[in-house]
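Lab notes, practical 5.
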Amino acid sequence: MRIDLHTHSTASDGTDTPAELVRNAAAAGLDIVALTDHDTTRGYAEAIAALPEGLTLVTGMELSCRVDGVGLHMLAYLFDPEEPELAAERELVRDDRVPRARAMVGRLQELGVPVTWEQVARIAGDGSVGRPHVAEAMAELGVVRDVSGAFTQEWLADGGRAYVRKHELDPFEAIRLVKAAGGVTVFAHPAAVKRGEVVPESAIARLAEAGLDGIEVDHMDHDEATRARLRGLAKELGLLTTGSSDYHGSRKTCGLGEYVTDPEIYGEITRRATGAFPVPGAGGRH
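Output from the prediction step:
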């Protein structure tokens, strides 16, 4: 059984529509895929309606958080999307994305980059606008070679010259909200140092004490030594370990199913969740 628990669609910053994503997941030989767009659940209905027979969808989300001045992403799975408190926080984070992206465009213009808000808005389309859309605009202009080339201290990385903070959840509050909505939490790519500063292991221990369910270990931004260290930490803290592609379509090089989650771990995630259930495919006939 092949299980990928971290993917993005055009509902946030991926390039596949939710329908395309589930069809591509089936074509890639996946049995289970999680849709985890940034701070939004807007892709669920389209993904479910297009879900091919033989593929199961796990509904999820990737929440933007910050602890001790360091940004982190919290994957939430199988929560009740209608739970009002979590929904309200999700909207706060999402609503801050437009003014934040506009501010980054302004900073880039001050730095001599001829990017425009109209260009970024065109790239984002109906998705939740974010740094990858700004980065793609920079790549279109030839300022950087590709999207990843914009995520440096020179440009858009945390603390970079054109970086602007957005509204972010305290991760301890995120864990509480997701659990109250019946969901399961997994700390996404916790040691992705190429993205910028990462939280220390002591903070992961505090999150575990607060009810964090797991950490994402097998990820394109973790080398083998890092994965081994994280597995040891997870064992010590009693955390589940997941693997996933963090697929963004053509915006990233990692393909669907490039990293996967152990079926036993997936089974434990579904056992812990009470807010929603995985959706089995019906051939896209809904």
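Observations recorded by the TA: The CA atoms of residues 185 and 213 lie 5 Å apart. The chain is about 35% helix and 15% strand.
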